[in-house]
Structures are given as C-alpha cells and as structure tokens.
Design the sequence.
C-alpha cells in the first residue's frame, strides 16, 4: 500500500445496489450527499454496468465489489474504506434475497437461505463495518412491512421475546437460529412461528436495528443513528415487478434516514415507512 494518507472526505456505502431500490438509493445519494457514494454488488460486471449507467446520467458513484454472504468480501470493503477514507458516514444495508411466491423450494431451504442472508449476513456486515462509523453517522437497515405482518403471526411468547428491551444480539441470533432449526424439522408452526421465511428474516432486521441503537446510545461516538425502514411495495425483481412504486419512490424513505441532519434527535432505533415512524409489532 502506498504511504498516501486516508482522505477525510465523507463516504456512503449502499449494499446490494447494482439494481432495484439499492440502485435508486445510490442515485439519490449521488445527488444529495456531500461525499462519495459507493455502489456495491456481488458481481463485478453488473456493478460496473450499474456504475456506468449512473455516470451516463452525469453522476459519479464509486464501485466496490461486496458479497455480504462472504465475510472476507466484507473485510476487503472495510480495509478499502479505512485506507481510502479513514471511516464511514452512511451505511445502507439494502442487500437481501426473497424467494418468489410460486417457488417450489422446500420451506426448510427457504428459511435457511433467507435468514442466513437477510439477517445473519447483514449482522456480519454491521459487525465488520460499525467500527468505522464516525460521529453523526447514519445506518439504515432496509427491512419490510412483512416484518410487521410476521411478528403479529408469532405466538405471544415469541413476540414478547423479540420485544424484550433486554434482548441483545446473542439472544436475537438464538431466536433466528431456533426458527431455522424448527423450519428444518417441520415444527416451526407448532412452535409458534409463521409460515414466512422472508417475514421472519425481516423481523430479525427490524429488532436488530433497535438493539443496535441501544448500543449506539452508550457508544463514545456522538449521535450515531440506526433505523429500519420499509421502502414500500416497489416494482423490482424481488416483487416480480408487481409493486406499485418506482424504485426512486422506494428509495425516498431510506434516503431520508441516511441524510438525517446532525441536529435531529429522531427517528432513532425506529421502524419507518412512508417517511413516518411506525408503531412496530
């Protein structure tokens, strides 16, 4: 590595952003954020294609390969950010997967893969990248209204465990692992879990957000805000283009949360939809 000093320029990272809502978040941040915006994708070719597409609009995103399912890939991004910028100002955890409604994959497989990527890999990305967050950083975890629909279908006991203010990351990991194990045993429903792998994975993301904000409230770095959001029903690959919103409309709430000014004290650790704090669960 050269002896070049890390720049003090501000930087934003959007995971899973070569298409769909992530792509639109990068587009909006390129227009509104005073700093570099890094578009990431698992596939370098698709990522660079997305970068070129935005450059043709007169925007200037940077590109870095990132597969959140691969911890080494996340660590490479961390090392790049550290060397290049010395920190991180905005992290939008957008990467995720969803099986189609008509998927014939067994529920056990859907539960394992969906929870693994949407919850556990998002958590890994946070654990690797959070030490880089500077004071006044903003973290946006892209969740879904399906987390809201799924939590109310859980048994009262499971709901109470998720909503327990004393729940920490380890306890949450245990809950998510329990769901996957029970799904593999075909016992999730009798144990009080709903029949939605995607919905449960996003319960994990929403509850993780609340835990992360509690942690940040005791952190020595000032004013770090972590929020979860539902972009709405957007026409993307993930919704088989059935959504009613464009990707740019879907990006509005995540972008608003990414750009909360330092003077604001809310929302923090909240679930936000249509730019409004929602009661969750």
Sequence:
């Amino acid at each position: 590595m050269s002896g070049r000093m890390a720049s003090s320029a501000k930087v934003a990272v959007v995971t899973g952003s070569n298409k769909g809502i992530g792509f639109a978040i990068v587009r909006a941040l390129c227009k509104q954020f005073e700093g570099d915006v890094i578009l990431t994708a698992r596939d370098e070719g698709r990522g660079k294609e997305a970068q070129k597409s935005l450059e043709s609009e007169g925007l200037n995103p940077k590109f870095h390969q990132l597969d959140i399912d691969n911890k080494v890939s996340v660590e490479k991004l961390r090392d790049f950010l550290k060397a290049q910028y010395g920190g991180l100002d905005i992290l939008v955890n957008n990467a995720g997967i969803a099986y189609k409604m008509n998927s014939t994959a067994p529920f056990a497989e859907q539960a394992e893969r969906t929870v693994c990527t949407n919850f556990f890999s998002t958590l890994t990305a946070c654990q690797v990248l959070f030490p880089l967050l500077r004071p006044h950083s903003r973290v946006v975890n892209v969740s879904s209204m399906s987390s809201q629909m799924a939590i109310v279908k859980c048994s009262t006991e499971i709901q109470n465990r998720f909503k327990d203010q004393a729940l920490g990351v380890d306890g949450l990991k245990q809950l998510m692992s329990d769901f996957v194990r029970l799904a593999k045993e075909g016992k999730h429903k009798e144990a009080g879990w709903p029949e939605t792998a995607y919905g449960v994975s996003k319960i994990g993301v929403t509850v993780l957000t609340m835990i992360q904000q509690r942690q940040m409230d005791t952190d020595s770095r000032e004013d770090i805000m972590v929020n979860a959001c539902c972009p709405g029903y957007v026409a993307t690959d993930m919704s088989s283009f059935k959504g009613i919103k464009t990707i740019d409309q879907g990006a509005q709430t995540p972008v608003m949360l990414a750009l909360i000014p330092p003077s604001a004290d809310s929302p923090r650790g909240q679930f936000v939809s249509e730019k409004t704090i929602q009661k969750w669960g």
User: Anything to note?
Assistant: The first strand starts at residue 11 and ends at 14.
